[in-house]
Amino acid sequence: MKFNRLRLVGFKSFVEPGEFVIERGLTGVVGPNGCGKSNLVEALRWVMGENSYKNMRASGMDDVIFSGSGNRPARNTAEVGLYLDNSDRTAPAAFNDSDEIQVTRRIEREQGSVYRINGKEARAKDVQLLFADASTGARSPSMVGQGRIGELIQAKPQARRQLLEEAAGISGLHSRRHEAELRLRAAEGNLERLDDVTSQLESQIESLKRQARQASRFKMLSADIRAREAMLLHIRWVQAKEAEAESDSALNQATVLVAEKAQIQMEAAKAQGIASFKLPELREDEAKAAAALQRLQFARNQLEEDANRILRRRDELTRRLAQLAEDISREERLVADNASILARLDAEEADLAETLADSGRLAEETREAFEEAAAKLADSERIFAALTAERAEAAAARNQLERAIRDLADRKMRLERQADEANRELAAIDEKMADLPDPDEKRSMVEAAEDVVAEAEAAIQLVETALSKARETEALSRGPVEQARAALNALETEARTISKMLAAGDTSGAFSPVAEDLRVDRGFEIALGAALGDDLESPLDPQAPIYWSDNGSGATDPALPDGAVPLISHVGAPAALTRSLRQIGIVAAGDAERLMPALKPGQRLVTKDGAVFRWDGHVTGADAPSAAALRLAQKNRLSELEAEAELARDVLIEAEEHLSAAAEAIRAEEGRLGTARDASRLAARHLAEAREALAAAERASGDLIRRRDVIVEAVSRLREQLEDVAMQDENARIELEDAPDLAAIDLKLNAQQAEVATDRGILAEARARHEGLNRENEARQRRILAIQQERDTWRQRAASAEEHIQTLRDREEEARDEAAELDLAPDEFDDKRRALMNELQKAEEARRVAADRLAEAETVQREADRHAATALSELAESREKRGRVEERLASARERRQESELRIRQALNVEPHEALRLTGLSAMQSTPDLREVERELERLKIERERLGAVNLRAEEESRELSERLQALIKERDDVIDAIRKLRGAIQSLNREGRERLIVAFDVVNAQFQRLFTHLFGGGTAELQLIESDDPLEAGLEILARPPGKKPQTMTLLSGGEQALTAMALIFAVFLTNPAPICVLDEVDAPLDDHNVERYCNLMDEMAASTETRFVVITHNPITMARMDRLFGVTMAEQGVSQLVSVDLQTAERLREIA
User: Fold this and answer.
1) pTM
2) Rounded to 10 degrees, what is the CA torsion of 611, 614, 617, 621?
3) Closest residue by Cα to residue 90 from 151, 139, 136, 21
């Protein structure tokens, strides 16, 4: 396959559709940094199946989609297509039917990738295998990206081996081997699960058998319980019917009693109605009289309230007049006092102003005395604070030391107690360890059990080998049986068909044709049919209308010409046909014309293909065989088939005997395998028990040993802590002795405290004098302001006093007028009160008369109500009694219906048929209900003791047995699959190993040649190290540049390392040339001289192989050596574009110009 072109759209910075043509030779890609040259390489790797977004320089695979620029929105899809030339038909068989293979990969944002090969969807694995089989791929060494040379230099030998694998073309084998190993592990896991499942099924089958026996007992008890339940339900149904009949009779009696009481109640209700007919009218008259009386009483009360209100208003006016007279007198006195108050306020203001003038000097003196006392107090307090701090610090230090000593004593006691407890626990652990079982004894038991398990597994392997051989023998035997059976069936089918055809063609009726008595040699049927024709249908029986008769032996008949063989020599016929058959000769087709003139009358010649030549010159050409000829041929074929069928039956019987023997051998081996596996499981169980016992012993002893070590270490730490505590206690006591004396500090503190108290008293006295003087001055100033305000108030009051006095006099006049009007009201109220009292007396008399008449009517009504209530009560009682009887009847009927329903639901029969299920006859007496209940309870308890019962146990046991057989067969299939997978993996490893060794020799030779070519001398070689298996070995490079000693690759200079890595890469290409080689800025670390060597080597590679080189470079020397150049530009920020130039064509055009 050859890479033709790469088409990409929406991939990273290539937003517009672009096509990168890959032709034979050297194709260069140039452009400034960051313009998107490496995006071309990544697009090529991406379409070849790269699935790591990190290798795509992205944070997610969606980042390969164009993410937008300043002028273009982001795309939602990206697609890359790679076109391969398959004209040489070297692609895998699945894709080898077209001249061009198109591989595309399309990704949609948040939807993932889709691969297509020639327009059909494919898996990523299919694409990767397609390129791996072509010795290339996304991660192939032929894709030399930026830093790849450095990675190869720094790579470990194991990683360098991948170059050899690419050269050997076994990358695809690796993936196939990995897939086979995954399948092998899955098959082995399935086998383990199948063994577990079969073991579980065997135990489940045994359990189900026990459950089946329990289910049988459960069914017997259930039958007995059903009979007892039927008896119990029958008895209850009979009792319910009897209770229903009794309740029905009681209901009839209660209904008669209710009818009698209802008649009595109707009569009482009639009398009650008559008595209550006039009662509403009397009540209405009484209510009217009461209402009239109430209205008059309300009017009397209203009149009394009006009189009282007038009296209260008159008293209020009297009080108001007295108040107004007093207010007028007070206002007149205030007007008189106003002048004297204003004079007094002026005098007080003058005194205060003089006092304020004298107090200024005294205030300055008191301020100075206050400031001096405050300064002295501050000095005293500072000294006192210093002494207090010194005393507090000393006390704190002493208290801390004392507390530390106490804490250390407590800690020492606690540590000593912990040490004692630890020593006791050590002693207890030593006693327990003496009583523990010996782990060595348990370990020897485990080793013995492991030996038994190994022997059991070896026995299983031997039996499995024998079983596999038996199955192979059985499989080999099955083929001959099937072949023999198929051959016999074919023969029998053909024979039956021919027999049916012969039977269908028999149309002679009562006379059998002579053809049925003929025996013809095979191959002469057509000749006989042509010679005799329809005469073969004639019978030998003289009774037939047409028949063959015996007409002598024909001894005197003329002989046939020389060269003609009589037909009688190939036909066994009755005597009647002998004479005719002797006159018919068998000749070759070429001799017939020659011998025909020598024929005598009545003679004829016939060929084997049916041509007839008569004596009289009549010739009948060969045509389709006659029916008689076909019938004779079918009879011959039927005889042959019968003989062949007999032989086929013998062969089939023999093959079936071999197959039966092989099947018997398989059954025997399977029995042995089952026995061996049982022994293996038993041994494994014993091994597990031994290991568990060993683990328990080691765990117990190990726990105790670890606990003892922990305690010993804890005791050691406790001793160290006790020594540390003793040292700390001693240091604390020494520091306590050196601490300052608190008594001396207290004396100084008390003296200073007294001095501070004295200074505070002086300061308080000075502050009191100073603040008192200030307060007095402030009070005098406030009083002056108050005097001014009060003077203004008195002046305003003097101005408005006259107006106020006039207003008070007007109000006094109005009050006097209203009081004169109220003095006339009491006489009017007396007249109204006398008239209202007369009306009240008349209304009370009318109401009394109406009330008496109403009382008499209510007495009669109460008597009628009493009789009616008594009758109604008796009626209700009788109805209630009837209701109770109805309830009893309904309850009895419900019990009877419930019993019938329970019988139908529980027994699925009608109630009168329940007795039949009890096993009792109608003549037998019914047993006691309680006895039946006790028996039923006993049976239920006995059934409950059985616990949960699986009624489908027998069926489930049968199903599980069938499933077990299927699983055993499936396990055998899995074992066979594992054997085949292991063989396939070994085959892949063998093939890969062979191909890798061959490739190593070729690569080593090419590497040595290329190294010498690139360095202009020197030697180098490759070595397989670290493993004897080539598939696991590493690849080491030993190089000796000209004039230097041999050394490993890591000891070479940077340029030497780059050239050595290039030699190795190109050696791989020469061994197994890849369709494409991408070199991304590989020449960056090389100087101009080595760049020339590098370009010469690429020219040589391009000329000697079919590899197509794509070279990304910034070096002008490399650019000049390219066959064609592609420029990657970024005219628009964030958007890459391709521009191509064919340098060879350009040079030719320049030469022409």
Assistant:
1) 0.37
2) -10
3) 136
